[in-house]
Amino acid sequence: MNLYCKIFTGILGCCIGVKTNYGIPPEKTDLSSLYTFSWMDCSSSLSGQQVSADTNALPDWVFASQKDYSVGISDPISDREKAREQAIVRAICSWGLASGEKTSSVLQESMENNTNIMQGSWRLIIKSFDYKLLREFEYKTGEICVAIQVQKTEDGNKRMLVENYWSQKISENTEKIEEHLNIAVSGFKKLEVIQFKLESEGGKTTMHSSIDGQKVVFTPPFSYPEMPLSSERTIDLENIAFTPEVRYNISRLSDYPLSFSWLKTALIEAPIEPMNSQTESNQQFDREGNEISVTSHHQADFHIPYIITAACIKDNQLIIKWEINEELNEELKKQAENLYQ
After folding, report:
1. Which of 76, 227, 263, 267 is deepest in the core (most CB within 10 A)?
2. What is the span of the domain harbouring residue 145?
């Protein structure tokens, strides 16, 4: 079972100080205005020129805590402006998940022909927003890294719809995983839809990325320098331990660019853990007419806000550490309690 499934399955059904059956929010409640962020001064953590000239080394800010900004990495494509927008869109998606924006999700589990089948999806909608580009860096592969701050607006022209779908089938001899991440945006000059697909079977993983339906073509292998941990980025690589407050994602850098591993690790496998959920069990039928039991878990509005607090590249592996934003988590719990009491 992949890390995302383990995290999701381990938390579903639990509630953090809130009831588990809430129904539909009152129509007058506008959750899109739950949080409004003002621009912050990140000069202490993002020093130096906005565009770096050294393309042989990765900047430290990409691997630092994203409490005050969000990071996105583009695929290695030749159109620089399109690559920049792709990196920005991915960073905005990361911000939406980390800032507790409203999501809806469902997880289903069933047993069919001696095969355990788990299917899940989540959706994120950001109705109106703007962003500030704080840093930009182009690595020698052509990948562009950006650091941005996002601000929600009332009547801006930028919109975002994010949909993630994944399935996992486990039988006696095989395990097959398939994941899709689609991000549709409006208000950008060079792109409208970016897609990412991951397939894993028999220990082999393949990943595909496309922009507006055109597949991203690249030439491996890729080489990236090791990014050691600073005193501010603490990960005990010898004793990585998962707790309710801390999560880790690990992805091997091999035949794919860093942008693929970063997206897989920071978005597809991001801990989307619900504060509350509803569980339903019912009987359905498979294609042969056999009765199967299906258990569904539906998330209701609020999820726990995890943020990336540290990352590194070690032994050809990308390692990302997630921690709960405790201050924001308390605010979201209060919002949920007030909404559903």
Report:
1. 263
2. 33-39+56-263+305-340
